[in-house]
């Protein structure tokens, strides 16, 4: 996946380098980051200078989710511990943490990390073992922010499947969420009752 200055997101192939496999008009300004979900490799997030973070599924021309953060978004990353958590950092010095399983419309945490007058946040990443997020700014400084316990809650297995591992539970959680926002598949020969001829 490649994001471009004009907002296009191109899917490229290492075997066929002359043409793009697929192209989507993802944003209206430069795309700064594309990051795949750790639990489902067909789901990815993109961010841009147009103030937006979009969640995509491979093969779809429209995003599944779109969030406007009020400032150019320098980076977006999925959490390695949860299939529905991602974080983004903006040019006004804020970090936004979303959990789509908790709220599909609003962040569950917004934290000002640097002064927007002197610095801009450009990079963000989760630590794979410790409950921290590291942010980088335009002055070359790294800022470490600890996640609160409610931002890193693990899935509880259902009563019928107590021995299911955490990875499988995370995949199931994401699949359930995606089933709510995906369009139903088109079936040929099926006619809606209200449009049937009398």
Task: Give a quick summary of the entry.
The protein has 198 residues and is mostly beta strands. The chain has one helix spanning 166-181; strands at residues 2-3, 8-11, 22-25, 31-36, 43-48, 52-57, 65-68, 73-78, 85-90, 94-99, 109-112, 121-126, 132-137, 142-146. The longest helix is centred in the C-terminal third of the chain and has 16 residues, at 166-181.
Textual characterization of the structure:
- There is one protein chain.
- The protein has 198 residues and is mainly beta.
- It has a single domain, classed as YVTN repeat-like/Quinoprotein amine dehydrogenase (Methylamine Dehydrogenase, Chain H, 7 Propeller).
- 8% of the residues lie in helices and 36% in strands.
- It contains one helix and 14 strands, in the order ββββββββββββββα.
- The chain has one helix spanning 166-181; strands at 2-3, 8-11, 22-25, 31-36, 43-48, 52-57, 65-68, 73-78, 85-90, 94-99, 109-112, 121-126, 132-137, 142-146.
- The strands form four sheets. A four-stranded antiparallel β-sheet has the order 4-5-6-7, with no helix packed on it. Strands 8-9-10-11 form a four-stranded antiparallel β-sheet, with no helix packed on it. The chain has a three-stranded antiparallel β-sheet with strand order 1-2-3, with no helix packed on it.
- A hairpin with a 6-residue loop joins strand 8 and strand 9 (85-90).
- The longest helix has 16 residues, at 166-181.
- Residues 194-198 have low confidence and may be disordered.
